[in-house]
Amino acid sequence: MNRIRATVNRIDYNGNLHRLVLSAGSQSFTVITLELGDEYTVGALVDIRFKPAHVALAKNITGEISIANRLDATVLELHKGKILVEMLLQGAGGKFYALTTTEAVERMRIVPGDAVVALLKASDLYLSKTDEA
Amino acid sequence: MDMVVSLLKKTLAGAEGEFLLETDVKIACGGITAIAGTSGSGKTTFLRMLAGLTTPDEGFLEVDGEVWFRGERGKTPRVNLKPQQRKVGVVFQGYALFPHMSVLGNLLYASRDRDMAEKLLSMIGLQQLRHVKPPNLSGGQKQRVALARALMQQPRILLLDEPLSALDETIKALLQDELLKVNREFGVTILIVTHDSSEIYKLCDRVLLFEKGRIIADTSPRKLLVEHATTQKFAFRGEVLELRAVDAVHVAVVAIGNNLVEVVIDKDEKENLNAGDSVMVGTKAFSPTVRKFEKQAFDVSKL
């Protein structure tokens, strides 16, 4: 499970639906979630967490896309299976894994050192409290 | 308005020696409060002290503005109403019905109020069974009769000690609906000892969590039961049965209650896990789908 430490910058809500804007280094994140515990306040340090399978990758992306989170990242490692590839990426907010199909990696000719954009839907991210202050 | 003001103490003998049961709690009129906690934590004794079936060592109990108990340790209590003087209805897990009396007879034994008996029979769906005797009733039906009988004297509080724990899920759900109806229509304040988290969530507006004689949490079911470590809303406790490597990923087989689920996990997660570990399986509230369950379909939970 990917974990990126981030600071909560803004919280909007409508009923029990919340939208949070966070930052990790120079990277901004948007997270959509239902009810939010009292400990998630503006200024709080939290972990943004997401499954590697929820990360989509793009190269040379142009045009409009609705996905809220775009992370500029560099490919560090590829662990290839016959069907899936687990990829380790370095973004501005930290390292994270992406899981994608081997077919996509070959089609996009992704190799270590490549610059890619990782795309993450705001509703696929969740938050957990960090133990460190 | 406070219905119950309890400040009762009693020394109990537990598996690890004596401990003091201390209940400093106020319960508002009309709600349903869950009494939860491990066995031997004093839950049942608390209910028995409220009902007058067990005498506290010391303390104070006021219900609906009337003092039911007042006493000091080592002395004869100054006030200690007998169970029949207390306006409480009690239903325990065992049914305790008179086997030789009909359903109606059992109700009328508690109070001769025939109108009340008719009202309860129709409300709890027992009209057809009014002349049947308890040995010919199912577990769910017996527990309904016990509930109706507990309501015959129009108690101000209803004390339920795991009343539904021996029943199957379908009957349990029906009786939970009936308890909600009873709570609404009679305005009776209910205290229920239960271990069932869905029951706590469905029925109760408050949970008192007992541990070794003390109330260690007094909160709402939502706060107690909904996963809080993360913002994930769809989270269940389970046990890892097996970990497998498949292609570039790993799969954990996890038992959640009677169900098995497979979860794709990554290397980090896999490295921290072993078969037999207790885990929390979770996903965001956005991810699960909800489908109507076809009743005819094979139901694993019935095995």
Describe, in short, the structure shown.
With 133 residues, chain A is mainly beta. Chain A has one helix spanning 102-107; strands spanning 2-14, 17-24, 27-33, 45-50, 56-58, 69-80, 84-91, 94-101, 115-120, 126-129.
Write the topology of this structure:
The complex is a heterodimer of chains A (133) and B (303).
Chain A: E1 2-14, E2 17-24, E3 27-33, E4 45-50, E5 56-58, E6 69-80, E7 84-91, E8 94-101, H1 102-107, E9 115-120, E10 126-129
Antiparallel strand pairs in A: 1-2, 1-4, 2-3, 4-10, 5-9, 6-7, 6-9, 7-8
Chain B: E1 2-14, E2 17-28, E3 32-37, H1 43-51, E4 58-63, E5 66-71, E6 79-80, E7 88-91, H2 103-110, H3 114-123, H4 139-151, E8 157-161, H5 169-186, E9 189-193, H6 197-203, E10 206-211, E11 214-219, H7 221-225, E12 234-246, E13 249-256, E14 259-265, H8 267-271, E15 278-283
Parallel strand pairs in B: 3-9, 3-10, 7-8, 8-9
Antiparallel strand pairs in B: 1-2, 1-4, 4-5, 5-6, 10-11, 12-13, 12-15, 13-14
Helix pairs in contact in B: 2-4
What share of residues of chain A is helical? under 10%
CATH architecture of the largest domain in chain B: 3-Layer(aba) Sandwich
- Classification by helices and strands of chain B: alpha/beta
List unreliable stretches of 5+ residues of chain B. 297-303
Q: For the record, give the distance between the C-alpha atoms at the N and C termini of chain A, rounded to a whole number.
A: 21 Å
Please give the order of strands in the largest beta sheet of chain B: 7-8-9-3-10-11
Number of strands of chain A: 10
Q: Helical residue percent of chain B?
A: 10-25%
Q: What would you note in describing this structure?
A:
The complex is a heterodimer of chains A (133) and B (303). Chain A is built from 1 helix and 10 strands, in the order ββββββββαββ. Chain A has one helix spanning 102-107, and strands at 2-14, 17-24, 27-33, 45-50, 56-58, 69-80, 84-91, 94-101, 115-120, 126-129. The longest helix of chain A is centred in the C-terminal third of the chain and has 6 residues, at 102-107. Chain A is elongated, with a radius of gyration of 15 Å. The relative contact order of chain A is 0.27. The mean pLDDT of chain A is 92. Chain B is an alpha/beta fold. Chain B has 2 domains: 2-225, 3-Layer(aba) Sandwich (Rossmann fold); 229-303, OB fold (Dihydrolipoamide Acetyltransferase, E2P). Chain B contains 8 helices and 15 strands. In chain B, helix 2 runs parallel beside helix 4 (139-151). The chains are: A mainly beta (133), B alpha/beta (303).
